[in-house]
Design goal:
By secondary structure, the protein is of the alpha+beta class. It folds into two domains: about 20-90, Winged helix-like DNA-binding domain superfamily/Winged helix DNA-binding domain (Arc Repressor Mutant, subunit A, Orthogonal Bundle), CATH 1.10.10.10; about 110-235, Chorismate lyase-like (Chorismate lyase, 3-Layer(aba) Sandwich). It contains eight helices and eight strands. The protein has helices at about 20-30, 45-50, 55-65, 85-90, 95-100, 120-125, 175-180, 200-205; strands at about 70-75, 80, 105-120, 135-145, 145-155, 185-195, 210-220, 225-235. Strands 3-4-5-8-7-6 form a six-stranded antiparallel β-sheet. A two-stranded antiparallel ribbon has the order 1-2. Helix 1 packs across helix 3 and helix 2 (about 45-50) crosses helix 3 (about 55-65).
């Protein structure tokens, strides 16, 4: 008697993280026009009650939506659907760890130093703080499958993230932490092809004349400047991609 072949059982799907479910729900509702541009959206407390999660989980979902330019957050006022013109002009701020993980690869961070400094005149002006203000300075090399992908030289306004240096940056990236504790309201950035400094070339394991993609980004919160970062990527190892919808 011929055997009957049964169809293979579907593999169980990995459940999405709670913050991702909240984020996807809000994105879908925004796409349907439930909240027109400028309209108020559910408060943090309402989302906590609706989804039965912690406030930190809700904050992460909302911070990622804001980083994508889909919502606006005003401290002490609430969350609002972003205006379309503003959405179209946003550069998405993504965490490098998440980019690497999304490719199925392994992220590793090498912390060169993490220390407190006093902002001198030029740095203070660029970061937007007073001369002599307390700032935190980290220099971190990010690796993908043990290949150096980015050299991150970052200054953080101590008033905006007082516990910044308490973090283990081999476990949580500066971007992950700052998006949680110091929600950004505005970002300015520049992108150029340039040669690395001698220190950057050494840390990335490249020669001095190798072209690099250099991103300099400054972020500001509703009340305080947050961070100034120089992100250097070897041109042969990194591709900057994005999406634009008119």
């Amino acid at each position: 008697m011929p055997s009957t072949l049964l169809p293979p059982r579907p593999r169980p799907q990995k459940a999405a993280a709670p913050y991702a479910l909240i984020k996807q729900h809000l994105k879908e509702e925004l796409g349907r026009g439930r909240w027109p541009p400028g309209a108020p959206m559910p408060s943090d407390a309402e989302l906590v009650a609706q989804f039965g999660v912690s406030r930190m989980t809700v904050t992460r979902a909302l911070n990622e939506l804001r980083a994508e330019g889909l919502i606006e957050r005003v401290q002490g006022v609430g969350t609002f659907a972003a205006h379309l013109a503003r959405v179209a002009s946003q550069l998405q701020i993504r965490d490098l760890h998440e980019e690497i993980s999304a490719r199925g690869h392994r992220h590793r961070a090498q912390v060169q130093f993490a220390r407190e400094e006093s902002a001198g005149g030029a740095l203070a002006a660029r970061l937007g703080v007073e001369n002599g203000a307390r700032v935190f300075h980290t220099l971190i090399v990010h690796l993908e499958n043990d290949v150096a992908l980015q050299c991150e030289d970052r200054y953080v306004n101590a008033a905006a993230a007082p516990q910044y240096l308490d973090n283990d940056f081999t476990r949580v990236t500066p971007t992950q932490y700052l998006l949680q504790v110091a929600p950004l309201w505005q970002a300015q950035y520049s992108i150029e092809a340039a040669r690395p400094t001698a220190q950057e070339a050494r840390l990335l394991g490249i020669v001095r004349d190798e072209p690099c993609l250099v991103v300099v980004r400054r972020t500001v919160g509703p009340e305080l400047p947050i961070t100034l970062a120089r992100l250097v990527h070897p041109g042969s190892r990194y591709l900057l991609q994005g999406e634009f919808k008119p």
